[in-house]
Design the sequence.
């Protein structure tokens, strides 16, 4: 049993990353059905800041002091009453949303799992959820922490799109966390991948498995795709554009094609103005075995490591600030044993 205080990234009000600070707070204890985890690494996600901003306050009210963070990897240090799936000493990884996130959390990662916040030395998580799994020895904690939300978004996107060998798929927003999983999975499915990325990221997305790269900063993506592929592409995976931009993008999808979207809010019905296209909006959703599949693909070489920058816990607030202010390639990670 571990009591006392721990170091954590904490917010005491809604706001920008500027409201975050590192504080000593009470170590959370597991309730029945929960486990306590000593966190080794935690990954940043955009939903952390969406919740913190207050834009989701009606649907997802936060309790303060609030510890952000959902993706983590660590070691079980205590199990609550009724937990049989995990034991003290088990290495685990997964994702969970902060307490009281209600409909928002349920929409973005179903079935919902709750946490006291991953950006801390210790966290408690619901144990009985497919969004939490044992971490195999071959998968280190940092790589494991970078996988959950990105991978649990990528897998249902590709299930919806069902890419076939030889099909051409345009991935918009290939350099971020989800793109760093989507592109390798498409490549493994033997699809021909066109990725949008800045010029500085071309080598990165090609290493992930992209066959072609379009610099969205210097070219009109729709026009360039039409020029290169006048017959259109079979599918589009949108990880970056707002819903209203999908009208233009749908022009380069050949008849009967698919458009898979992961941006929020979801496009209104009829956004693409074509009745022959299939459009699916998919957010993070964990099925039993999904995290095991992601771990196997990561250790087997299908999913390359895509960690853009690492920070210490003391630098957690700065990590969130740079997440907003600087270009992100892959995942940003807070490693608890890193030096400040």
Sequence:
């Amino acid at each position: 049993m571990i009591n006392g205080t721990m170091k954590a990234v904490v917010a005491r009000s809604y706001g920008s990353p500027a409201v975050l600070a590192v504080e000593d707070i009470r170590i959370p204890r597991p309730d029945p059905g929960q486990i306590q985890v000593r966190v080794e690494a935690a990954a940043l996600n955009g939903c952390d800041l969406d919740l913190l901003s207050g834009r989701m306050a009606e649907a997802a009210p936060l309790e303060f002091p609030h510890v952000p963070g959902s993706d983590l990897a660590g070691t079980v240090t205590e199990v609550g009453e009724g937990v049989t799936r995990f034991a003290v000493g088990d290495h685990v990884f997964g994702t969970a949303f902060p307490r009281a996130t209600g409909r928002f959390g349920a929409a973005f990662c179903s079935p919902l799992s709750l946490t006291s916040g991953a950006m801390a030395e210790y966290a408690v998580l619901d144990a009985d959820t497919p969004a939490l799994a044992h971490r195999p020895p071959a998968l280190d904690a940092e790589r494991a922490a970078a996988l959950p939300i990105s991978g649990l978004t990528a897998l249902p996107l590709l299930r919806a799109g069902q890419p076939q060998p030889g099909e051409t798929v345009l991935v918009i927003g290939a350099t971020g966390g989800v793109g760093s999983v989507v592109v390798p999975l498409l490549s493994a499915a033997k699809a021909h991948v066109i990725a949008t990325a800045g010029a500085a990221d071309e080598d990165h997305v090609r290493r992930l498995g992209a066959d072609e790269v379009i610099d969205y900063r210097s070219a009109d993506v729709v026009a360039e795709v039409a020029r290169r592929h006048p017959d259109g592409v079979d599918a589009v995976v949108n990880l970056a554009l707002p819903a209203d931009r999908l009208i233009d993008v749908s022009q380069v999808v050949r008849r009967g094609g698919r458009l898979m979207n992961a941006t929020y809010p979801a496009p209104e019905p009829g956004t693409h103005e074509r009745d022959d296209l299939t459009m699916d909006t998919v957010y993070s959703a964990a099925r039993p075995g999904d995290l095991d599949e992601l771990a196997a693909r990561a250790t087997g070489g299908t999913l390359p490591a895509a960690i853009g920058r690492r920070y210490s816990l003391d630098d957690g607030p700065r990590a969130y600030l740079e997440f907003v202010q600087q270009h992100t390639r892959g995942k940003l990670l807070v490693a608890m044993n890193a030096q400040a």
User: Anything to note?
Assistant: The two ends are 28 Å apart (CA to CA). The first strand starts at residue 5 and ends at 11. Residues 100-111 have pLDDT under 50 and may be disordered.
